[in-house]
Amino acid sequence: MDLKQKLLALAIAIVLVLFIAVGIDTFYKAPENPCNSIYETQPKTFPSNCDFVQDTNRTNCIINQQLFYENQSIESQKCYDEFQPRDNLYKRNVFIILTIIGGLTIIIGLLVKNLHALSFGLMLGGLVNIVYGVIRYWSQMNEYLRFIILGILLFMLIWVSYKKLK
To answer: Which of 12, 86, 121, 134 has the fewest CB atoms within 10 Å, counting from its CB?
Structure first.
C-alpha cells in the first residue's frame, strides 16, 4: 500500500468512528443527569467567607457553612445513587452497539478483497469502535468480563492479521 492508500484508509477509519459516535449521540441520547443542577437550585444562606463576619457571629457562620456543605454532599450522593443505574445501563447499551458495529465492520473489511485502502480503513475503524465501546464501559465491567473482552480482541487481531497478511 502506498502513502495515498494509507492516508485514505486512515481517513475512512476516522470518519467511520466519528459517524458511528454521532449516530449514537443523535439517535440514542444519554440520560439527562439531574445532579448537574443540584447546586443551582439550593440557595446560599450564609456569607461565602466567614472571615468578614463579626467575631461574635463567626462561629455560627462556620457552623452554618459546615451544615450547608454536609447537606449538599448528602443531596449530591443521593442524586448520584439514583442516576447511576440509568447511566450504567446507557453505557452498557452503547458498549454493545459499538462492539456489534465494530465487529461487523471488521468482517466487512475482511470480505473486501481488492480494495486494500477500504479494507484496512474498515477494519481499523471497526477496531477503534470496539475499543471506544470498551473504554466507555470499562469502569462498570467486572474483572472477568474485562479479561474475556480483551481475550476476544486479541484473538480478533491475531485472526485478522493472519487472514490479511497471509
So the answer is: 86
Distance between CA 151 and CA 17 in Å, rounded?
Answer: 22
Burial class (CB in 10 A: 0-12, 13-18, 19+), 127: buried
- Helix/strand/coil for 112: coil
Give me the residue label for grid cell 479479561: 147
Q: For residue 57, give every residue at least 6 positions away whose Cβ sits within 8 Å of its Cβ, in sequence order, or none.
A: none
Q: Which helix (H) or strand (E) holds 27?
A: helix 3-27
Query: What does the pLDDT look like over 107-119, one tens digit per residue?
Result: 899 889 889 999 9
pTM over 0.85: no
Quick one: angle between helices 143-165 and 55-111, nearest 10? 30
